[in-house]
């Protein structure tokens, strides 16, 4: 530096002035002229390129130039959208639950909710907020993003995950499976059984119901197997069957069957079919999907609803015999079946077709008051594996009701009540209603006896009326039969006379 400074000092003064002379710089007019020429050349080249070079090749060239001149980024971003096709993205759900445990004081905005049936507050991050996580020395940054889709008019939600590119394999192979397993444990630890149904577009937390077309509320049904007034042997057989089902994941895979089970509950109204479904859900901790077939127009909607249900769930179709008019499969063959129609074949494929294998550990329950009205194709094994008859109340069932409602296991009136129950068709719901009419056990039991006596008289009167109607029908058939016989004899005699006259 000193040498350069010395050389500069010893230069002649004229030389120093010439080095920084303004006369050597181009004039403003020259610069404007050069810029105009360059702009004209650029426009000419651009027009020629648009004229002679295909747009696909232009895009390829420009993308290559952008890649060459863009700065090299060391960060990789993964996107987890809320929905993957027509189903909910499991990674999105896992991230939403997992990140709720990673909230730090640095986060400025949180979403806090509490539904009427929820016990605790639910805290999640608000859109635009960022959560920093660490895994085996790797820093990972999560961000929750919401954007409005102008084309569909809906809101798209997704998570962004940013980290250094060199940890790509570790994140994909170890971190994300860790998030999935952690969220599964959290979900099982605080899971509340939910009832999903069509037509609800907001769930208890004010969200979209968690299933697209399904909406949900918490199921607070108190029914358990201990409180059900059903045959003890049948109850034990059902519990054993459920326990066997949930433990046989590997077995179903080995034999090549979808991991699902079908139950048909049939019997008169008021015998506890709906309560049994709630007891099954509480016992297994499975969600319930209540499917109303009358709200569906064609078979494709069944498939869309099926793939939107979660694993470890019970799909219920109540009153299958009268919920919708289904075309018989034999009538469908050889005729034009409209796509805007729900068919029996669609129901059968829904139960055990290819689409039924889209999920694991699922239970399908049909209920009906009239089993004899169902198409035999619905009842075969593989569709409805276990048929459960919910009959009228039995003496053992009444003892359980008396124990549940009044805490009594033996009472002087038990013998008379049991005799009346054996002779009377009465549902558990009717007896439960009588037991609720008084807080005093003696008064309630006496009321049950009076009710059973009235019920028996009503049943006897109905049977007498039915017997009289049957006798009238039989008499009419006999009269019609005699009339037909007399008419046949008269026609025979007339025909004989005609033949005789013809040959005379």
Automatic annotation (TrEMBL):
Membership in a protein family? Belongs to the AAA ATPase family. BCS1 subfamily.
Task: Give the cofactors, semicolon-separated.
Answer: Mg(2+)
Q: Name the reaction it catalyses.
A: ATP + H2O = ADP + phosphate + H(+)
Q: Which regions are flagged for Basic and acidic residues bias?
A: 462-493
Pfam annotation, one family: AAA_assoc
Q: Which InterPro entries match?
A: AAA+_ATPase, AAA_N_dom, At3g28540-like_C, ATPase_AAA_core, ATPase_AAA_CS, Mitochondrial_chaperone_BCS1, P-loop_NTPase
Task: State the CDD domains in the record.
Answer: RecA-like_BCS1
List each copy of the AAA+ ATPase domain by range. Answer: 259-394
Instruction: Report if keyword Isomerase is assigned.
Output: no
Q: Name one GO molecular function term.
A: ATP binding
Tell me the domain of life: Eukaryota
Positions of the UniProt region annotated as Disordered: 462-504
Q: List the keywords (alphabetical).
A: ATP-binding, Magnesium, Nucleotide-binding
Compositionally biased residues, Basic residues: 494-504
Q: What is this protein called?
A: AAA-ATPase At3g50940-like
Instruction: State whether keyword Nucleotide-binding applies.
Output: yes
GO biological process terms, semicolon-separated: response to stress
């Amino acid at each position: 530096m000193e040498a350069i400074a010395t050389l500069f000092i010893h230069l002649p003064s004229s030389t120093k002035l010439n080095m920084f002379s303004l006369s050597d710089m181009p004039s403003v007019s020259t610069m404007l002229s050069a810029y105009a020429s360059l702009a004209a050349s650029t426009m000419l080249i651009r027009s020629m390129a648009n004229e002679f070079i295909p747009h696909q090749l232009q895009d390829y060239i420009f993308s290559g130039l952008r890649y060459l001149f863009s700065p090299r980024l060391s960060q990789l971003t993964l996107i987890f959208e809320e929905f993957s096709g027509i189903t909910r993205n499991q990674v999105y759900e896992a991230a939403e639950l997992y990140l709720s445990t990673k909230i730090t004081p640095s986060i400025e905005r949180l979403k806090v909710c509490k539904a009427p049936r929820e016990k605790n507050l639910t805290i999640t991050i608000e859109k635009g907020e960022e959560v920093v996580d660490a895994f085996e020395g790797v820093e990972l940054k999560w961000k929750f993003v919401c954007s409005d889709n102008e084309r569909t008019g809906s809101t798209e939600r997704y998570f962004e995950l940013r980290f250094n590119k060199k940890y790509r394999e570790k994140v994909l192979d170890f971190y994300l499976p860790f998030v999935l397993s952690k969220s599964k444990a959290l979900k099982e630890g605080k899971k509340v059984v939910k009832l999903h149904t069509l037509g609800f577009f907001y769930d208890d937390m004010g969200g979209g119901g968690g299933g697209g077309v399904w909406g949900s509320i918490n199921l607070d049904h108190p029914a358990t197997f201990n409180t059900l007034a059903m045959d003890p042997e049948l109850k034990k057989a059902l519990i054993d069957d459920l326990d066997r089902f949930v433990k046989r994941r590997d077995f179903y895979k080995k034999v090549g069957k979808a991991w699902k089970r079908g139950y048909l509950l049939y019997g008169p109204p008021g015998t506890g079919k709906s309560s049994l479904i709630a007891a099954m859900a509480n016992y297994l901790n499975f969600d319930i999907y209540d499917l109303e077939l009358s709200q569906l127009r064609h078979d494709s909607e069944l498939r869309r609803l099926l793939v939107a249900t979660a694993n470890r769930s019970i799909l219920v179709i109540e009153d299958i015999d009268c919920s919708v008019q289904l075309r018989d499969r034999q009538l469908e063959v050889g005729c034009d079946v409209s796509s805007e129609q729900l068919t029996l074949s669609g129901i059968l494929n829904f139960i055990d077709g290819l689409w039924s294998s889209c999920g694991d550990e699922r239970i399908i329950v049909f209920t009906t008051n009239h089993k004899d009205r169902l198409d035999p194709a619905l009842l075969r094994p593989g569709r409805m594996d276990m048929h459960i008859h919910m009959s009228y109340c039995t003496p053992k069932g009444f003892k359980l009701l008396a124990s549940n409602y009044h805490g009594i296991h033996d009472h002087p009136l038990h013998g008379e009540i049991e005799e009346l129950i054996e002779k009377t068709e009465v549902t558990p719901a009717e007896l439960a209603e009588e037991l609720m009419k008084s807080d005093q056990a003696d008064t309630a039991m006496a009321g049950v006896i009076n009710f059973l006596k009235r019920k028996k008289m009503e049943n006897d009167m109905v049977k007498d009326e039915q017997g009289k109607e049957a006798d009238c029908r039989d008499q009419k058939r006999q009269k019609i039969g005699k009339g037909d016989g007399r008419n046949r004899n008269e026609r025979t005699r007339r025909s004989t006379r005609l033949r005789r006259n013809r040959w005379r």
